[in-house]
Specification:
alpha/beta; Rossmann fold; 5-stranded parallel β-sheet; 7-stranded mixed β-sheet
Amino acid sequence: MKRVDVGAREPHTNGGLQAREHRGVTRRSFVTGLAVLGCVFPVVPSAQQAQPVRVRRIGLVVGDDPEGGEAAFRETLRNQGYIEGQNLLIEARYSLRSSSGTGVAADLVNMDLELVVVHSLPSALAAQKANPSMPLVIVTTPGIISNGFAQSIERPGGSATGIDELPPGVTATRLELLKAAAPAVSRVALLSTTPGRGGHEAQLADAQAAAARLGVTVKPYRATTIAELKQALAAIAAEGMNGLMTFQGALSFVNRQLIVDFAAAQRMPGIYQATVFATAGGLMTWAPDIVDQFRAAAGYVDQILKGAKAGDLPIRYPARYYLTLNNTTARSLGLIFPPALLSKADRVLP
């Protein structure tokens, strides 16, 4: 029988056990090390686990836009980090030149949107009537308080905010500038297409106060439709008015060429509500920068999407008004702009 040497096997057995114990400790240390590394360097989730991008949905109503306000609005939003097709969807609607956009505004405010931007007072009034709780940003309006959108300039308090184009004194300044350019003007027609409440009355009071100082008489002619606008122009001519000023209003804005051509035919000096009247052939304008107002509207949008309430955002007046003079029209009327007026001009068209 072969003798088994137990003692000779013992060191081998102990060595194997120690080796196995060593390997077990090594594994535990490795696993423990991974856990520690996991705390220091968290595991990055895969693309499938990434949070979806939140897409913000807003509405936009744009009417006649000859100066590119909509493009400036979209560009400003891009600069603020809102990329259409990625984290922003704009439901844009466009009104025709003869339309105020009231129908499309009413439709938009009843869609699943976070806010709606409207370009004018008629659109804002229609939107407010259709859905009073929808947050509104109004690009331009005469009389944002008198039309019930806000309680005060500093704290609107409702569901709307925006830019009010009628700071005190604007209409008076326009009449003073017209008189400076055309001293012979003595009977000024005030062509008003201002809708809603308060805007027409504020402009009329401003004009009447200035007229008393300047020694001229003024008479308002109101219109709410294109037919009424044509009737008003006919009455202005028939009644021998020799000067013209337009009040803020979408109807006069979209029909500016009709008005400017009328003034030229009547050889009537006029001052108008928007710079594009001068480029269309009007004598002069004292007007805000509508493109800047669209940019300001984009700023309001950004604040609302970040959690602000429209009613907590103060209403703005335009940052400044710009004087534009048309030399060609002046010459056709036998006028020469005085040096003092030219020195005030921001732009003089040849």
